[in-house]
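pipeline/complex-builder :: batch 7 item 3
reading input block
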Amino acid sequence: MKKYSVLMLMAFFSAIPSLSPAAAIKIGVINSITGPEAPIGENLTNGTKLAQEDLKKKNINVDLVWEDDTGKPQIAMSAMEKLATRDKVVGVVGPYTSACANAVAKLAEKYKVSLLVPAAAKEEITRQGYKWVYRMNAPADVYASVLIDAALSMGKPKTIAFIYENTDFGTSTTKTAREYVAKKGIKVVADESYSKGSPDYRSTLTKIKARNPDLVFMVSYVADAILLMRQAREIQLQPKAFLGGGAGFTTAEFAREKEISNGVFACTQWTDDVSWPDAKEFARRYKSRFGKEPTYHAACAYASMMVMAETAAKAGGDREKVRIELKKGKWNGIMGEVKFADYDGFTNQNRHQMLVEQIQNGKYETVFPLIFATKKHLYPFPKWQ
Amino acid sequence: MTVFLQSLISGILIGGVYALIGIGLTMIFGVMRVINFAHGDIMMVGMYLTYNLFTLCGIDPFASVVICIPVMFLFGGFLQKIFINRVLNALPQNQILLTIGLGLIMSNTIMLIYTSDYKILTTSYSSGSFRIAGISISEPLAISFLITVIITAALYWFLMKTDMGQAIRATAQDREAAQLMGINVKRMSVIAFGLGTALAGTAGALITPTYYIFPQIGSTFTLKAFVITVLGGMGSVIGATLGGVIIGIAESMGAVYISSGWKEVLVYVIFLLVLLFKPSGLMGKSRM
Amino acid sequence: MNSPAKSAITKPPKSKAPPVTYLLATVALLSLLFAFPQIVDSPYTLHMMILIFLSIILGESWNILGGYTGQYSVGHAAYFGTGAYTTMMLMQYAQVPPWLGVWVGVAVAIIVALAIGSICFRLRGPYFVLASIAAAEIIRLTALNVKSFTNGAEGILATDIPPLKLGAILITDFSSKLPFYYTGLILVLLTILMTWLVQHSKLGYCLQAIREDQDAAHSLGINLTLHKNIALIISAAFTSTAGSFYAVYIGFIDPTSVLSLDMSVQIVLICIIGGIGTIFGPVAGAIILVPLSEALRSNMIAQGLFKAGLVGEESSIGIFLKDNLAHSHVLIYGILVVVVILFMPEGVLGFISKFVHGKTRRGVS
């Protein structure tokens, strides 16, 4: 029985050759399609699909091999092993989560396949000196610094409270924020992590309210952001500014809840009104294609796929050439100027300019840095009704 | 003092919703001794039902309870007859895995239909609140607490005063003896599972105005439901209500006086302590 | 509690001398497994084999406590995670090589197991199950919150594994599959040997007696707490070893990947699908589950259909399959679990032997 199974298994995994016409360029996509990270993964999937359509228009025929990592590192590794050795892709875009990207980066280096991480925030991913690992988005430390800098340029905040989800994204963003505010002389008065999906944050917020911080810095995924702000309003938490660390504070759903979201600042990798080429056009087409506004995840995935596919087409499917071209290349698209550079211990990291946006009348307005600003910022946070 | 009162009040209010989930499970666990790992997923189905009723037919989430209860009751009866009934005498781990499998089927079917996007249901009162002596009380939570109290009272009356309710309680106390007394335990199981499902679905409906929905949300509530059920005592409606409120307060107080990261540890420690020192639960009769 | 199971306990079967054919088959299988990396050098296939080995080790370990002793723990992630974390923390913070760290992991896991056991073994049936889950959740939340030790949700990344000297061989390349393939294989053989020894010893009969009827076993003079704890220690030690193996192989751990309820459920699933309380049940479970979930996940089924020419890739069915199968592999997995539980309650092995011999397998309650 066992012998047969092993033989069948051998046949199963080694005999099925990959199938594709020789002309198309094979690129792997690892993403969280199912599992707890799927809600965000969905945006990356959509962004990638749109990129595929645009590439076709540019006469670049890509054959995408989709892999679901279900949000688990060991499965992301299986996916990478398969893409690198069985499907023989020339490059890989993904995975979404930091944990998966970290596990996969090691394999990219081993199999010498370029990996372009579109939206994972963990700093370490591009800090290990890997030659084959590239990252599109700005890492976690920028999330914090861009927001704190914005707050410091608006007023003189003395104290800050952190509330963040106890995931990799939440803790690593807050960690860098803690270091950054220490440098800037702002005092941390509360530091609270929470498990995502909890229906009640009132008590935590009440505790923060009692410490009366000038700034409230929050890191949460989509829906928790709305819950946090609803409950902050309920208990009348009234800091000078609410700072949202990406993700949940940058979604259209959040902006639509005008009553609670007006005046909240959020840092983001991308906005739909930014002056980068085709950004507005991307937003419009995304909306008509998928019936909802694009998040920065979608934009990151789109830009990453465009960069990877164009490079791969130019390199003619040669892995080593793809790596060299990625390192040398310079692109200008919906994410602004993209260039993979080595600096401050990072390797192959796109020095992406993060933006700070503020919700005004139910719409995101870019307010920092000033060269990208579309509206003047509102500070301090208006009194709750 | 305000901090203390504020967290006490919000703990009690959120405890009301927990209680409803716990009561649903206590019916199922009490009558069938089946560890239902799909309980949170059933609640998720209730949430999507409410969401659809609201977005498609414009029915208010709280009013939709009237539709939610019968629909979910039928759904639960169906689950029991087709699946659960076959494993009533199986090993506990087979029961667990069956319900886990059913949960996976539910959440992934919903995902195929609605995608895995977060859905937020915003009503005019979603972020409303009123204040009493400096303490703010969430309007939707207050309403749902009230509805929970009404449903619990009605259920208690049903179990205590009607023949069928007594038959269900008898089945919960001793399945074999109940059968010997001429009670149709199979039918009672279907009804109990239906009621449990309806209550979980109702809890889902009540929490939607203040919460959000996505297909994998169930697992957050499944474990909590077990803690509440064991805390209160198997098959005890009053116990589950008490358990829900205690867990609500424990979480709330834990977040304020320990830290929000540790509040769940507190919940599990309470759970283990109860199992060790009063295994029958706060309101249950000894069953060990 | 059927009669064949009873007789299996009361009357130890005489160990028959294995026929020559069995012996030859075993030798052939073993040499095939040892030569496998030389025959197939696809890293992907080897990776799958390593995952299967890992699942077998986990399944066999759970089997000692769950299958033989009847203590259905759904909290084995606690021991898996303890092993993984201890090894990883020692390696990253104290430069202790993993092949030494694994022993510390085992020691810590045994201490954790005894602590959990002292609480859970007072309970029975569903209460035991729930208590084991709660205990494992406490450990997961602790790992999440004690950031200074465990790095919290950010997890621990293995950066450098020191070289290992085995006699004349010096192993430095830990990104190669080979060291892990052979370590995994040897661990599998060890766990199977351990299970065989347990099953054929007095301990095994005591454990099975406890599973069949705790009170009867007690009245026969079997010390319940002692035997349950012995089973737990064996089970936790091997699970912890598997955890260390996982940590070093994957090179990254965080509370969600090694300590979650999901992990515990996966471990139980291997046994249930294969068949509990037998030596080869977990082996069958792992050989079925690991490739199956991988095939479902990576959409090999749709590709197979296209390749066989059964469905056109550009036809409407083909497009439907391509679009939806990637989203529905967990759904199909769920359906399969439900089908196996309903129609093969004794697992696939039990089902097959019932089918072949027309009788129930030995050792199932």
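note: Chain B touches chain A through 40 residues (CB under 8 Å).
queue -> next item
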